[in-house]
Design a protein that fits this description.
Shape: flat
CATH architecture of the largest domain: 2-Layer Sandwich
CATH topology of the largest domain: Nucleotidyltransferase, domain 5
CATH superfamily of the largest domain: ATPase, nucleotide binding domain
Largest sheet: 6 strands, mixed
CATH class of the largest domain: Alpha Beta
Bound molecules: adenosine-5'-triphosphate, magnesium ion
Strand content: 25-35%
Radius of gyration: 21 Å
Number of domains: 3
Oligomer: single chain
Structural class: alpha+beta
Length: 344
């Protein structure tokens, strides 16, 4: 029987196949391109995933790019279902196999009933059997997928910064002791980079360019020195132009959001019972999410929290890897998962 873990991230959907030993079978941008005029729901779909992301900022006015999962919530059910169905097709799953499949979805820490019932509706739209659909909160999975050893006596402090959501939580083998998710992530940093380049370099750059700049030259190192030539359009003359952008000028665009997440992390730590706090302090923080790939972000977080830190080997995939491990383990699954069928 097919067993999958699905992480519908704000920027990237990841799917892990647990019954075949194939591991991660899909990682594609959570994007859909639609054409036509009027309401999004009346438009025709032009591209999904990688192909759709490549169109961002390059299409005619009547083509729109939709992120159907935004900041951890399903913001457009029709397009989210269409996208996920297409991803299932891309990994070779047909209707019958989906009906029989066991599927675990990662959900943000502290996800409310409304969010879970949206996920259940989405699963049903995709032809899954809700009796075999599970929801598990992200921090627990990130810890598991990142290789943390969870026990009742040694809680793990996890912090994940993704594309649209950050999760902070203290988890133990018993569940989540304290935690929250917030709508802060890489997209905010990209938007901030766009504004800064417009101000400093008088250049308008698109979202894809901003993301590339962030991922290729940005760093929180005190001696960030990288630079690159960004292409865009001049803010005053409105014609194609380029400018050399400097990493040290852009660090601030990232730091403000990392600082916000740290602020929430500190608030979470303050709520901990004394013994748990002592353990967390001794064991440090466990870091995941794509933003940990930006140089010196982990070091910066460790220094600010005054704790040791450990970064998951594949920070972007920690949650889906954890999902893959959990769906293979009936006992843990029973303990930690909420059943899809309870949310219709
Ligand atoms: N080397 C890199 N490769 C891919 N993404 C990177 C890299 N460095 C930084 N990022 C950024 O990491 C973010 C995506 O991280 P991740 O895949 O963990 O998010 P997500 O799970 O899709 O979203 P969320 O969990 O917030 O809903 C994006 O902002 C992306 O630009
Ligand atoms: Mg994520």
């Amino acid at each position: 029987m097919v067993k999958l873990a699905v992480d519908l991230g704000s920027s990237m959907t990841k799917i892990y196949r647990a019954d075949t030993g194939n591991g991660i079978v899909l990682a594609e941008p959570s994007c859909v391109a639609v054409v036509g005029e009027g309401a999004i729901d009346d438009r025709e779909v032009k591209a999904v995933g990688k192909e759709a992301k490549n169109l961002i900022g390059k299409t005619a006015v009547f083509t729109g790019i939709v992120q159907p999962v935004y900041e951890g919530e399903i913001s457009n059910m029709r397009l989210a279902a269409l996208m996920l169905k297409e991803f299932f097709t891309r990994i070779g799953l047909k209707k019958g196999a989906l009906r029989r499949a066991e599927v675990l979805f990662t959900v943000p820490c502290g996800a409310q009933r409304k969010t879970l019932s949206d996920y259940a509706m989405l699963a049903e739209e995709c032809g899954l059997n809700l009796r075999k659909v599970y929801f598990v909160e992200q921090p627990y999975l990130a810890a598991l997928g990142g290789g943390a050893v969870l026990s009742d006596s040694e809680p793990v402090f996890c912090l994940d910064i993704g594309g649209g959501v950050s999760n902070v939580a203290v988890v133990s083998a018993d569940g989540i002791i304290a935690g929250l998710s917030m709508n802060i992530g890489g997209s905010n940093m990209d938007a901030n980079i766009i504004q800064k380049i417009a101000r400093v370099n008088h250049l308008d750059v698109g979202a894809l360019t901003a993301e590339k700049i962030k991922n290729e030259i940005c760093s929180l190192s005190p001696n960030a020195r990288g630079s690159m030539v960004a292409q865009g359009s001049s803010t005053d003359q409105r014609r194609p132009a380029s400018a050399a952008v400097q990493a040290n000028v852009l660090s601030e665009c990232i730091r403000v959001y990392v600082d916000k997440v740290i602020e929430y992390a500190c608030a979470t730590l303050r709520k901990l019972p004394a013994e748990v706090a002592a353990t967390v302090n001794r064991n440090g923080v466990f870091l995941s999410g794509g933003i940990m790939k930006i140089p010196y972000v982990p070091q910066y977080i460790g220094a600010k929290l005054e704790m040791r830190y450990r970064v998951c080997e594949e920070p972007q995939f920690a949650s889906v890897l954890g999902g893959g491990a959990l769906i293979r383990n009936k006992e843990l699954l029973r303990k930690f998962a909420k059943m899809g069928v309870d949310f219709v």
